[in-house]
Structures are given as structure tokens and as C-alpha cells.
UniProtKB/TrEMBL annotation:
<protein>
    <submittedName>
        <fullName>SDR family oxidoreductase</fullName>
    </submittedName>
</protein>
<dbReference type="InterPro" id="IPR002347">
    <property type="entry name" value="SDR_fam"/>
</dbReference>
<dbReference type="InterPro" id="IPR053011">
    <property type="entry name" value="SDR_family_member_7"/>
</dbReference>
<dbReference type="InterPro" id="IPR020904">
    <property type="entry name" value="Sc_DH/Rdtase_CS"/>
</dbReference>
<dbReference type="Pfam" id="PF00106">
    <property type="entry name" value="adh_short"/>
</dbReference>
<dbReference type="InterPro" id="IPR036291">
    <property type="entry name" value="NAD(P)-bd_dom_sf"/>
</dbReference>
<comment type="similarity">
    <text>Belongs to the short-chain dehydrogenases/reductases (SDR) family.</text>
</comment>
């Protein structure tokens, strides 16, 4: 891979959490960035805190509005000339039991986490093909590899992303396109606070496991390492990463461990 500091990178979900930490770390490395989220005011704060704010371009984006992604892609390319890498980071989590969750909540989780990400990816795909290279980096979750109570819709959407991007890699490797799936465990962000409950309202409280999760700066550095090493997939976390291997080799043990952990 060409030195990452030479890349023009588009980051979704850049107003907080992992996306914000990535913006700072990639800016330090000299990357030109397009940063997107719904909150334009918060994006401006992120831009001004970057090492080279003059190399940061703000593009407000709502993944739920996935029918307008081609327009957003054209605007991004017009702003910075080209895009070398799209980091699909934006998304929303869930904290509710299946019996208590409205079907509209499941639809919102799929619209944002899956369809919005797929629509943006498809919209920029012709640009990557035309220039003969491009790198999709999609932040899924360990919940895209195994499940946990209170996250049924979130797990479903994240599992779907794995299926889609594995096929994208297969179909477009011949076009010089790379795909990296990043699977976070617990990271100390607002993901739990913003998580949807059964009626669609935000949880507005944190989880102990999330509070004790990886610092976003540490996570961002590990993620950049995986990207620069052109990993197909990287599981980034602490003890919870073991769940991936238990799911593969001893799924009944994973079932017991997850239920006993009482993680919410």
C-alpha cells in the first residue's frame, strides 16, 4: 500500500467516538479527509482540532437518507478531486429484548447500519473502478461474528455487512479494490448512550463494559495498523475477542459464557 499519509480518505460517523479519533490520527499522518455525520456543528469542532484543518472537508451525511448517496459522492469528489478510501464507520446500536422491540426499530437499524452503508458503497464503487483502485474499510462489530442479548437487530445488521463486503471483495479484486472489515469489541464511546431501546428512543445511559472498553485513540491506532497492512478482517478489543474463536470451535460454550456474563 502507498503510504497512508498520501491518501484522500472519507470517514462517516466522524463527529464522535471512533470516527472522531480516526480523524485526529489520520490528520496527524497528513491525510486529506472528508468527514461526515449528521451534526455539522460537531464536525466543525472535529475539523478545528485536527492537525491540518485546512486539509479537512466537511460533508454532512445521514445514512438513513440512503436514496441520495450518489449526490453525496459527487459532492465529495468535487470537493477534493478523488477519494482513495471510504471508511464506513457511522451506525447506531441497540439495547432491547426481542419481545420488547418494535419492528420499526429493526427497520431503522437496518436502514442506517446496513442499507445506508451499502448505498454509499455502491455510489462510490464506479469511481473506484474508474481510477483502478480504492479501499473500503467498514467498521462492523464483534456482534457481526456472534450474538449477545439486547442487540438482536444490531447483530443482524452487522452480520449482513460481513456477507455483503466479503462478496464485494471477491467481485472487485480484479478492479484493484480492497476491502477491510474492522470488528470492534468494547470501545469507550457514546455507542451505548445513543443505542435504540425497544420503542426507538435512545438509552441515554452507558454500559459498564463500554465504559471499561478500549480508549478510542488506542483503537484508532490499531485500526490504522490493520488498514495499512491490508488486512481482510481485524478483531480489535480485549477479552471479548475470544468470542470469535469460541463461536467457530465451541459454540455451545460461547452461548453459556455470554449468558453468564450478563453484559448489556
Amino acid at each position: 500500500m502507498k503510504r497512508i499519509g498520501d491518501k484522500i480518505i472519507w470517514i462517516t460517523g466522524a463527529s464522535s467516538g471512533i470516527g472522531e479519533a480516526l480523524s485526529y490520527q489520520l490528520s496527524k499522518l497528513g491525510c486529506k479527509l472528508v468527514i461526515s455525520a449528521r451534526n455539522q456543528e460537531q464536525l466543525l469542532k472535529v475539523k478545528n482540532k485536527c492537525n491540518y484543518p485546512e486539509r479537512i472537508h466537511i460533508l454532512p451525511l445521514d445514512l438513513a437518507d440512503y436514496k441520495n448517496m450518489e449526490e453525496k459522492v459527487q459532492q465529495a469528489i468535487s470537493d477534493v478531486g478523488r477519494i482513495d478510501m471510504l471508511i464506513n464507520n457511522a451506525g447506531i446500536s441497540q439495547r432491547s429484548l426481542i419481545m420488547d422491540t418494535d419492528i420499526d426499530v429493526y427497520k431503522k437499524l437496518m436502514d442506517i447500519n446496513y442499507l445506508g452503508t451499502v448505498a454509499l458503497t455502491k455510489a462510490i464503487l464506479p469511481h473506484f473502478i474508474a481510477q483502478g483502485n480504492g479501499h473500503f474499510v467498514t467498521v462492523t462489530s464483534l456482534m457481526g461474528k456472534f450474538g449477545s442479548p439486547y442487540r438482536s437487530g444490531y447483530c443482524g445488521a452487522k452480520h449482513a455487512l460481513h456477507g455483503f463486503f466479503d462478496v464485494l471483495r471477491m467481485e472487485h479484486e480484479k478492479d484493484g479494490i480492497q476491502v477491510t472489515l474492522i470488528c470492534p469489541g468494547f470501545v469507550n464511546t457514546k455507542v451505548a448512550i445513543n443505542a435504540l431501546t425497544g420503542n426507538g428512543k435512545s438509552q441515554l445511559s452507558n454500559d459498564l463494559a463500554t465504559e471499561k472498553g478500549l480508549d478510542p485513540v488506542i483503537f484508532a491506532k490499531k485500526m490504522i495498523h490493520a488498514i495499512t497492512n491490508q488486512k481482510f478482517e481485524a478483531n480489535i478489543g480485549r477479552w471479548e475477542v475470544a468470542g470469535v474463536y469460541l463461536k467457530r470451535f465451541i459454540p455451545k460454550l460461547l452461548h453459556t459464557v455470554v449468558l453468564k456474563s450478563k453484559v448489556r
